[in-house]
TrEMBL record:
Stated name of the protein: Alpha/beta hydrolase
Residues in AB hydrolase-1 domain copies: 52-310
Enzyme class name: hydrolase
Single GO cellular component term: membrane
Primary gene name: mesT
Protein backbone atom coordinates (compact mmCIF):
# COMPACT_ATOMS: atom_id res chain seq x y z
CA UNK A 1 0.00 0.00 0.00
CA UNK A 2 1.24 3.48 -0.85
CA UNK A 3 1.03 6.06 1.89
CA UNK A 4 0.63 9.57 0.54
CA UNK A 5 3.01 11.94 2.29
CA UNK A 6 1.40 14.66 4.37
CA UNK A 7 3.14 17.56 6.03
CA UNK A 8 3.38 17.01 9.77
CA UNK A 9 1.39 19.58 11.71
CA UNK A 10 2.56 20.09 15.27
CA UNK A 11 0.18 19.79 18.19
CA UNK A 12 1.08 23.32 19.22
CA UNK A 13 0.23 24.63 15.75
CA UNK A 14 -3.12 22.82 15.81
CA UNK A 15 -4.19 24.03 19.23
CA UNK A 16 -2.95 27.60 18.74
CA UNK A 17 -5.54 28.01 15.96
CA UNK A 18 -8.41 27.31 18.37
CA UNK A 19 -9.58 28.50 21.77
CA UNK A 20 -10.58 27.17 25.16
CA UNK A 21 -14.12 28.12 26.16
CA UNK A 22 -15.89 27.87 29.50
CA UNK A 23 -18.23 24.90 29.83
CA UNK A 24 -20.80 24.27 32.55
CA UNK A 25 -21.10 20.48 32.76
CA UNK A 26 -23.74 20.47 35.50
CA UNK A 27 -26.18 22.55 33.45
CA UNK A 28 -24.69 21.77 30.05
CA UNK A 29 -23.89 24.99 28.25
CA UNK A 30 -21.03 27.16 27.06
CA UNK A 31 -20.44 29.70 29.82
CA UNK A 32 -17.47 32.11 29.81
CA UNK A 33 -17.57 32.21 33.62
CA UNK A 34 -17.19 28.47 34.04
CA UNK A 35 -13.72 27.41 35.23
CA UNK A 36 -13.95 24.17 33.23
CA UNK A 37 -12.55 24.77 29.74
CA UNK A 38 -13.17 22.91 26.49
CA UNK A 39 -11.14 23.30 23.31
CA UNK A 40 -12.82 24.23 20.03
CA UNK A 41 -11.40 25.16 16.65
CA UNK A 42 -13.38 26.75 13.83
CA UNK A 43 -12.82 27.09 10.09
CA UNK A 44 -15.04 29.56 8.26
CA UNK A 45 -16.84 28.75 5.04
CA UNK A 46 -20.20 28.64 3.30
CA UNK A 47 -22.95 26.06 3.50
CA UNK A 48 -23.79 23.51 6.15
CA UNK A 49 -21.31 23.20 9.02
CA UNK A 50 -19.39 19.95 9.38
CA UNK A 51 -18.93 18.99 13.03
CA UNK A 52 -15.81 16.88 13.51
CA UNK A 53 -15.94 14.68 16.59
CA UNK A 54 -12.58 13.37 17.85
CA UNK A 55 -11.03 9.96 18.25
CA UNK A 56 -9.49 8.38 21.32
CA UNK A 57 -6.88 9.07 22.56
CA UNK A 58 -5.56 11.61 20.03
CA UNK A 59 -8.55 13.96 20.28
CA UNK A 60 -9.15 16.78 17.81
CA UNK A 61 -5.47 16.80 16.84
CA UNK A 62 -6.14 13.56 15.01
CA UNK A 63 -8.02 15.58 12.39
CA UNK A 64 -5.03 17.84 11.61
CA UNK A 65 -3.96 16.13 8.38
CA UNK A 66 -7.55 15.80 7.17
CA UNK A 67 -8.17 19.49 7.83
CA UNK A 68 -5.12 20.35 5.72
CA UNK A 69 -6.70 18.57 2.73
CA UNK A 70 -10.18 19.97 3.38
CA UNK A 71 -9.00 23.56 3.73
CA UNK A 72 -7.17 23.43 0.40
CA UNK A 73 -10.07 21.99 -1.62
CA UNK A 74 -13.42 22.54 0.08
CA UNK A 75 -15.15 25.57 1.53
CA UNK A 76 -17.84 24.38 3.93
CA UNK A 77 -17.55 25.64 7.53
CA UNK A 78 -15.96 23.22 9.98
CA UNK A 79 -15.84 23.00 13.75
CA UNK A 80 -13.63 20.72 15.82
CA UNK A 81 -13.74 20.06 19.55
CA UNK A 82 -12.06 18.14 22.30
CA UNK A 83 -14.19 16.48 24.93
CA UNK A 84 -13.35 17.10 28.55
CA UNK A 85 -10.42 14.81 29.29
CA UNK A 86 -8.76 15.05 25.87
CA UNK A 87 -6.66 17.30 23.67
CA UNK A 88 -6.40 20.85 24.95
CA UNK A 89 -9.56 20.64 27.06
CA UNK A 90 -9.33 20.40 30.83
CA UNK A 91 -8.74 16.94 32.28
CA UNK A 92 -10.13 16.73 35.80
CA UNK A 93 -9.60 13.44 37.59
CA UNK A 94 -12.95 13.41 39.40
CA UNK A 95 -15.11 14.05 36.32
CA UNK A 96 -17.99 11.70 35.36
CA UNK A 97 -16.58 10.75 31.96
CA UNK A 98 -19.13 9.07 29.69
CA UNK A 99 -20.68 9.03 26.24
CA UNK A 100 -23.65 10.94 27.63
CA UNK A 101 -21.62 13.87 28.95
CA UNK A 102 -19.71 14.04 25.65
CA UNK A 103 -23.00 14.31 23.78
CA UNK A 104 -24.04 17.06 26.23
CA UNK A 105 -20.93 19.06 25.30
CA UNK A 106 -21.57 18.67 21.57
CA UNK A 107 -25.16 19.88 21.91
CA UNK A 108 -24.06 22.79 24.11
CA UNK A 109 -21.52 23.83 21.50
CA UNK A 110 -24.07 23.67 18.69
CA UNK A 111 -26.43 25.83 20.72
CA UNK A 112 -23.75 28.38 21.56
CA UNK A 113 -22.58 28.58 17.95
CA UNK A 114 -26.13 28.91 16.62
CA UNK A 115 -25.76 25.86 14.38
CA UNK A 116 -29.23 24.99 13.07
CA UNK A 117 -28.13 22.02 10.97
CA UNK A 118 -24.92 20.10 10.60
CA UNK A 119 -23.16 17.12 9.09
CA UNK A 120 -21.55 15.02 11.82
CA UNK A 121 -18.19 13.44 11.03
CA UNK A 122 -17.22 11.06 13.82
CA UNK A 123 -14.05 9.08 14.36
CA UNK A 124 -13.34 6.17 16.69
CA UNK A 125 -15.26 6.41 20.00
CA UNK A 126 -17.12 9.48 18.74
CA UNK A 127 -19.15 7.08 16.61
CA UNK A 128 -20.81 6.04 19.88
CA UNK A 129 -21.32 9.71 20.80
CA UNK A 130 -23.00 10.19 17.42
CA UNK A 131 -25.32 7.27 18.11
CA UNK A 132 -26.34 8.91 21.39
CA UNK A 133 -26.97 12.23 19.63
CA UNK A 134 -29.17 10.46 17.09
CA UNK A 135 -30.95 8.47 19.81
CA UNK A 136 -31.78 11.77 21.51
CA UNK A 137 -33.23 13.03 18.25
CA UNK A 138 -35.52 10.00 18.11
CA UNK A 139 -36.55 10.60 21.72
CA UNK A 140 -37.37 14.25 21.05
CA UNK A 141 -39.31 13.55 17.90
CA UNK A 142 -41.42 10.96 19.70
CA UNK A 143 -42.04 13.42 22.53
CA UNK A 144 -42.97 16.17 20.08
CA UNK A 145 -40.05 18.37 21.14
CA UNK A 146 -38.17 20.67 18.78
CA UNK A 147 -34.66 19.86 17.63
CA UNK A 148 -32.19 22.62 18.39
CA UNK A 149 -29.77 21.33 15.78
CA UNK A 150 -30.75 19.03 12.95
CA UNK A 151 -28.23 16.45 11.78
CA UNK A 152 -28.53 16.11 8.00
CA UNK A 153 -25.84 13.47 7.54
CA UNK A 154 -23.55 11.34 9.69
CA UNK A 155 -20.26 9.71 8.73
CA UNK A 156 -19.03 7.04 11.16
CA UNK A 157 -15.34 6.29 10.63
CA UNK A 158 -13.29 3.50 12.24
CA UNK A 159 -15.47 3.38 15.30
CA UNK A 160 -17.74 1.20 17.36
CA UNK A 161 -21.02 1.14 15.49
CA UNK A 162 -21.99 -2.29 16.85
CA UNK A 163 -21.52 -3.23 20.50
CA UNK A 164 -20.51 -6.79 19.61
CA UNK A 165 -17.93 -5.67 17.05
CA UNK A 166 -15.17 -4.24 19.26
CA UNK A 167 -11.87 -6.16 19.07
CA UNK A 168 -9.61 -4.19 21.41
CA UNK A 169 -6.59 -6.27 22.47
CA UNK A 170 -6.06 -6.81 26.21
CA UNK A 171 -3.01 -4.52 26.29
CA UNK A 172 -4.98 -1.48 25.04
CA UNK A 173 -8.19 -0.08 26.54
CA UNK A 174 -8.88 -3.22 28.65
CA UNK A 175 -5.50 -2.81 30.35
CA UNK A 176 -6.10 0.88 30.98
CA UNK A 177 -9.46 0.24 32.62
CA UNK A 178 -7.97 -2.46 34.85
CA UNK A 179 -6.32 -1.70 38.21
CA UNK A 180 -2.97 -1.59 36.36
CA UNK A 181 -4.05 1.40 34.28
CA UNK A 182 -3.47 4.00 36.97
CA UNK A 183 -0.08 2.45 37.75
CA UNK A 184 1.37 2.54 34.23
CA UNK A 185 0.05 5.84 32.88
CA UNK A 186 2.41 8.09 34.90
CA UNK A 187 5.29 6.52 32.96
CA UNK A 188 3.62 7.29 29.64
CA UNK A 189 2.91 10.82 30.81
CA UNK A 190 6.61 11.50 31.36
CA UNK A 191 8.06 9.94 28.22
CA UNK A 192 6.88 9.69 24.63
CA UNK A 193 9.22 6.72 24.15
CA UNK A 194 7.50 4.82 26.94
CA UNK A 195 4.09 5.73 25.51
CA UNK A 196 5.02 4.73 21.94
CA UNK A 197 4.35 0.96 22.33
CA UNK A 198 0.79 1.75 23.36
CA UNK A 199 0.23 3.99 20.32
CA UNK A 200 1.97 1.91 17.65
CA UNK A 201 -0.93 -0.57 17.17
CA UNK A 202 -3.26 2.19 15.92
CA UNK A 203 -1.13 2.34 12.76
CA UNK A 204 -0.74 -0.37 10.14
CA UNK A 205 2.53 -2.28 10.06
CA UNK A 206 3.51 -0.69 6.77
CA UNK A 207 2.94 2.89 7.87
CA UNK A 208 6.23 4.84 8.08
CA UNK A 209 5.66 6.24 11.56
CA UNK A 210 8.42 8.69 12.44
CA UNK A 211 9.69 9.70 15.86
CA UNK A 212 8.58 13.26 15.08
CA UNK A 213 4.98 12.18 14.48
CA UNK A 214 4.96 10.05 17.62
CA UNK A 215 6.28 12.99 19.64
CA UNK A 216 3.49 15.25 18.37
CA UNK A 217 0.85 12.66 19.20
CA UNK A 218 2.28 12.36 22.68
CA UNK A 219 2.26 16.16 23.01
CA UNK A 220 -1.43 16.28 22.04
CA UNK A 221 -2.43 13.46 24.38
CA UNK A 222 -0.25 14.35 27.37
CA UNK A 223 -1.27 18.02 27.58
CA UNK A 224 -2.67 18.98 30.97
CA UNK A 225 -1.60 15.64 32.43
CA UNK A 226 -3.70 13.84 29.81
CA UNK A 227 -2.09 10.40 29.85
CA UNK A 228 -2.89 10.08 33.55
CA UNK A 229 -6.63 10.44 32.92
CA UNK A 230 -6.76 7.93 30.05
CA UNK A 231 -7.99 5.11 32.34
CA UNK A 232 -10.97 7.27 33.34
CA UNK A 233 -11.89 7.95 29.71
CA UNK A 234 -11.31 4.46 28.31
CA UNK A 235 -14.54 2.81 29.43
CA UNK A 236 -16.49 3.47 26.25
CA UNK A 237 -16.46 -0.14 25.02
CA UNK A 238 -18.09 -1.45 28.20
CA UNK A 239 -20.50 1.47 28.12
CA UNK A 240 -21.42 0.63 24.52
CA UNK A 241 -22.23 -2.93 25.47
CA UNK A 242 -24.34 -1.76 28.41
CA UNK A 243 -26.42 0.51 26.17
CA UNK A 244 -26.37 -1.65 23.04
CA UNK A 245 -30.13 -1.47 22.50
CA UNK A 246 -30.23 2.33 22.67
CA UNK A 247 -27.21 2.70 20.39
CA UNK A 248 -28.29 0.10 17.84
CA UNK A 249 -27.34 1.63 14.49
CA UNK A 250 -29.85 -0.48 12.55
CA UNK A 251 -32.65 0.80 14.81
CA UNK A 252 -31.47 4.39 14.40
CA UNK A 253 -31.26 4.12 10.62
CA UNK A 254 -34.72 2.57 10.51
CA UNK A 255 -36.09 5.55 12.43
CA UNK A 256 -34.08 8.33 10.78
CA UNK A 257 -32.92 7.01 7.42
CA UNK A 258 -35.28 9.30 5.51
CA UNK A 259 -34.01 12.34 7.44
CA UNK A 260 -30.29 11.60 7.85
CA UNK A 261 -27.81 10.33 5.26
CA UNK A 262 -25.43 7.74 6.72
CA UNK A 263 -21.95 6.66 5.74
CA UNK A 264 -19.58 4.12 7.30
CA UNK A 265 -15.80 4.01 6.87
CA UNK A 266 -13.56 1.16 7.97
CA UNK A 267 -10.00 0.01 7.43
CA UNK A 268 -8.57 -3.26 6.25
CA UNK A 269 -5.97 -3.62 9.02
CA UNK A 270 -7.82 -2.02 11.94
CA UNK A 271 -7.18 -4.24 14.99
CA UNK A 272 -9.65 -2.33 17.16
CA UNK A 273 -12.74 -1.84 15.00
CA UNK A 274 -12.03 -3.77 11.81
CA UNK A 275 -14.84 -6.23 12.56
CA UNK A 276 -17.31 -3.35 12.38
CA UNK A 277 -16.87 -3.17 8.61
CA UNK A 278 -17.93 -6.80 8.11
CA UNK A 279 -20.89 -6.37 10.45
CA UNK A 280 -21.97 -3.21 8.65
CA UNK A 281 -22.03 -5.06 5.33
CA UNK A 282 -24.03 -7.90 6.85
CA UNK A 283 -26.52 -5.87 8.87
CA UNK A 284 -26.97 -2.58 7.04
CA UNK A 285 -27.06 -3.87 3.46
CA UNK A 286 -27.90 -0.97 1.13
CA UNK A 287 -29.08 1.48 3.78
CA UNK A 288 -25.68 3.20 4.10
CA UNK A 289 -22.69 4.00 1.92
CA UNK A 290 -19.82 1.80 3.12
CA UNK A 291 -16.21 2.70 2.27
CA UNK A 292 -13.16 0.58 3.01
CA UNK A 293 -9.82 2.36 3.23
CA UNK A 294 -6.42 0.71 3.28
CA UNK A 295 -4.27 0.87 6.37
CA UNK A 296 -4.75 0.61 10.10
CA UNK A 297 -7.06 2.16 12.64
CA UNK A 298 -5.81 5.74 12.37
CA UNK A 299 -7.01 6.55 8.85
CA UNK A 300 -6.91 10.23 9.81
CA UNK A 301 -3.12 9.91 9.74
CA UNK A 302 -2.62 7.20 7.10
CA UNK A 303 -5.27 8.15 4.52
CA UNK A 304 -6.17 11.81 5.20
CA UNK A 305 -6.67 12.66 1.53
CA UNK A 306 -9.02 9.73 0.89
CA UNK A 307 -10.91 10.36 4.10
CA UNK A 308 -11.30 14.04 3.19
CA UNK A 309 -12.78 13.02 -0.16
CA UNK A 310 -15.27 10.68 1.52
CA UNK A 311 -16.28 13.45 3.93
CA UNK A 312 -16.81 15.94 1.13
CA UNK A 313 -18.82 13.45 -0.95
CA UNK A 314 -21.24 12.49 1.82
CA UNK A 315 -24.76 13.43 0.67
CA UNK A 316 -27.14 15.36 2.91
CA UNK A 317 -30.85 15.07 3.52
CA UNK A 318 -32.76 18.27 2.90
Amino acid sequence: MTHRASALISAQEWFSAGERVGYDAERPGINPRSPLRAFIRRAAGTGVTRTFLPGWPDGSYGWAKVEAFLSSRFHFPRIYLDYIGHGDSDKPRDYPYSTFERADLVEALWHAEGIAQTVVVAFDYSCIVSLELLARRIDRERAGNDQRTRITACLLANGGIFADGHTHAWYTTPLLTSPLGAAITPIGQRSWRMFAPFLRPVFSRGYPLSAAEMKELHDAISRRDGVRVLPATAGFVDEHREHAARWDLARIISALGDEVAFGVVGSAEDPFEGEQLRLARERLADSVEITELAGGHLTTAEQPDRLAEVIAALPERS
